[in-house]
Specification:
Layout: E1 6-8, H1 12-15, E2 23-28, E3 31-36, E4 42-44, H2 54-64, H3 69-95, H4 99-132, H5 145-157, H6 160-170, H7 178-195, E5 200-207, E6 215-216, E7 221-222, E8 226-227, E9 230-231, E10 235-239, E11 244-250, E12 257-262, H8 265-278, E13 283-285, H9 288-293
Parallel strand pairs: 5-12
Antiparallel strand pairs: 1-4, 2-3, 2-13, 5-11, 6-13, 7-10, 8-9, 10-11
């Protein structure tokens, strides 16, 4: 077994929408370069599980206190499992005399969340292909939409930009619990949307201008305005390729799927500026001239 050291917080499956032969154009620090997908939007051992402090555990349990009882039971099981992995396998690693046992224990600590997210990405990959061909009808199928919803919910919480924002708000004593909290936040979002699924509309934005959609290292963003520190609503935007993007929000529309054609360059530019503002330090495009426009 090989440990996964390069752990992507933006999947290569997603970034392939802008790539040619697994190469993508990047903008960082006002410099444009081309890179292999495996070398961008990743950090070494990013999803490695940490031992949770008592303060962190208290914060986690406070966060789920107001969730429905059925969810609360499931969340507590998830918390206990993820909390136990670095403790139990850490003990095995420290006392094992066999190098193979030590390595297997360390892989469990390092790769558990990576494998969870990889499975979610695999399940969502067919829907990404459909969206890039201009088809969003899978959202109408109650047996299919959850796989895609899981993907975008986890993408919304899993990046270093979101981690930095959360840790600034939580304080240093709670930092060890972010890995578990991010998972719970994604699952709460999925449960919230699933509960009122008939009220949520997936809009496929079709770009027919000469300005492509760009993406970044934090590509699933909430366009809803924020008052003080409280998010008023959830209006997810995520570019899918230079030609397509999605929005997911609550609406009073009869259709759960809609197709919106963008004919004005200014509309695409506005979405691209949202992507610029939400990035940590990297923008991605399918050609260098698009990135030059945003330097």
């Amino acid at each position: 077994m090989n440990k996964v050291r390069k752990q992507h917080y933006v999947p290569r499956m997603y970034l392939r929408g802008w790539a040619t032969d697994n190469q993508i154009y990047c903008l960082r620090n006002k410099k444009i370069f081309i890179s292999a997908l495996e070398n961008v939007a990743q950090r070494r051992d990013y999803y490695r599980l940490e031992i949770i402090t008592e303060e962190g555990l208290a914060l986690i349990h406070a966060m789920i206190e107001n969730t429905p009882d059925t969810l609360k039971v499931q969340f507590k099981e998830i918390i206990e499992l993820l909390r136990a992995i670095p403790i139990s396998f850490g003990i095995i690693k420290s006392i094992a005399s066999n190098d193979n046992a030590k390595e297997i224990s360390d892989i469990a600590i390092n790769d558990t969340i990576e494998k969870l997210l990889s499975g979610i990405e695999r399940n969502a990959a067919p829907f990404m292909c459909e969206l890039r061909s201009g088809n969003a009808e899978f959202w109408n199928n109650e047996n299919l939409f959850l796989d895609f919803l899981l993907f975008i919910a986890f993408q919304f919480v899993r990046t270093p930009k979101q981690e930095n924002n959360a840790k600034q708000a939580m304080g240093e004593m709670y930092e060890s619990c972010w890995g578990i909290i991010s998972i719970l936040l994604a699952l709460i979002l999925v449960a919230r949307i699933n509960e009122s699924y008939e009220n949520w509309t997936l809009s496929l934005l079709i770009n027919q201008t000469d300005l492509p959609f760009i993406t970044n290292d934090n590509p699933a963003i909430n366009l809803s305005k924020v008052a003080s520190e409280e998010v008023l609503d959830f209006d997810l935007y995520m570019p899918i390729s230079p030609q397509y993007a999605i929005r997911l929000n609550k609406s009073n529309k009869k259709s759960k799927v809609e197709y919106l054609t963008l004919l004005k360059r200014s509309e695409v530019d506005e979405y691209n500026h949202h992507i610029m503002a939400s990035s940590l330090d990297m923008l991605f495009a399918d050609n260098p001239s698009t990135l030059e426009y945003y330097i």
